[in-house]
Amino acid sequence: MLDLTPKEVKERSALRINPCKTCQPVGAMYAALGVKRCMPHSHGSQGCCSYHRTVLSRHFKEPAIASSSSFTEGASVFGGRSNINTSVKNIFDIYNPDIIAIHSTCLSETIGDDLGSYIMDMDIPEGKAVVHTNTPSYVGSHINGYFNMMMGFMNYLTQSTGASNGKAAVFPGWVNPGDIREMKRIARLMNVPATFFPDQSGVLDAPMTGKYEYYPEGGTTIEEIRGLGDSKGLIALGEIIGVEPAELLKKKWKVPSTLLPMPVGVSYTDAYVSALQKLSKAEVPAELEAERGQLVDLMLDSHQYTYQVKVAIFGDPDVVIGLTSLALEIGMIPKYVITGTPKEEFTRKIEALFAKYGVTGCIAKANSDLFELHQWIKNEPVDLMIGSTYGKQIARAEDIPFVRAGFPVLDRYGGTLLPIVGYNGGIRLVEKITSALMDRFDRDCADEDFEIVM
């Protein structure tokens, strides 16, 4: 399928081929779906909204509700004020959300719609709320859209009474609902009452009940978002996605914050547990210590299959940083590590991991794409690939074992329900990585090496 990808690598500054990202409004929509009884609203054409919903629905295998301003030629020329006013009235009348979260698109950004002033002039029903953020599709990636939407909620809703509410705030970053459930479980075990924002658990992994609900039981409530300003401390998970929301909460409402990497693998999960421990002053429970020991034991047991294996890792920046740390912990060589999100801090974080573990000859690059990754692999192959579904074409073309992780995974089921974070998530990842490598050994080995016990 990709046999014609050339080996010669040429620098490209204005062209992306086979991107390793999607656009800001997708991230804004996903963030809004993590708020209870919230209707995400795309201020642009119906086609934009349909695409963003489709991407999320195909990954989560769940309906991703959202509405649209339904721009036509007139709104594209004269502005979408009339469209958004009519939309908001109809949404409250027909779908009755508690809050509407509006994000812009490249079309409304290009014509210069001032959503803030439009909202100020709206007749919003009592007890309801409307928030917005700007998410031009031609800047950044879905990661930018996600944290921009978070800050939109906070700027409109968050307050401070000057008295602590006794709860921690946790920004989980862009992860699956199964990951948020694991983060919350660890916080409960550490005896830390916490508000997770956004919280897509219970929304995009809601159970089958036989009756469809527009607004499932999950999500961060409006009152919890208002109370973020009274939090006794913030743990922001994701050193790329968490920076700006954490800085906003600290600067505007004086909430002390701790910025941590995504808790993937042993050391990064240790950092999350330690941060929780500082808030609770509690001992680490035996349950967590046992899970950590099981992960370390599995790493040792499988080390003969993972040691010095060359791996290419790609996807969203914070998940990729976590996966790279785990790969290094189990003795792998992360030969190529890329993200499509244009954040150079990503490159510095990955290169710091290379230096920490003493690996050389590896490449880390932000604002890259899968075409470039494929060219590198053609010049110097790897033994394994880890990333989103979009890597499967490269894996097939180059006959490389492939482990799916991150966003989006469009061709497998159940992954969004299971964690890759925490010690339990680390166990799942090491099992998946080791199984992929052992399956390849079984496929390629000579008959006399085809063993029952490995």
From TrEMBL:
Q: Which residues form the Nitrogenase/oxidoreductase component domain?
A: 23-437
- What InterPro entries does the entry give? ChlB/BchB/BchZ, Nase/OxRdtase_comp1, Nase_comp1_CS
Pfam families in alphabetical order: Oxidored_nitro
Alphabetized GO MF terms:
nitrogenase activity
**What keyword terms does UniProt attach to this protein?**
Nitrogen fixation, Oxidoreductase
* Gene3D superfamilies named in the record: Nitrogenase molybdenum iron protein domain, Nitrogenase Molybdenum-iron Protein, subunit B, domain 4
Provide the E.C. number(s) assigned to this enzyme: 1.18.6.1
Q: What class of enzyme is it?
A: oxidoreductase
The record's PANTHER family line, in alphabetical order, gives:
LIGHT-INDEPENDENT PROTOCHLOROPHYLLIDE REDUCTASE SUBUNIT B
Of which family is this protein a member?
A: Belongs to the NifD/NifK/NifE/NifN family.
Record-given protein name? Nitrogenase molybdenum-iron protein subunit beta
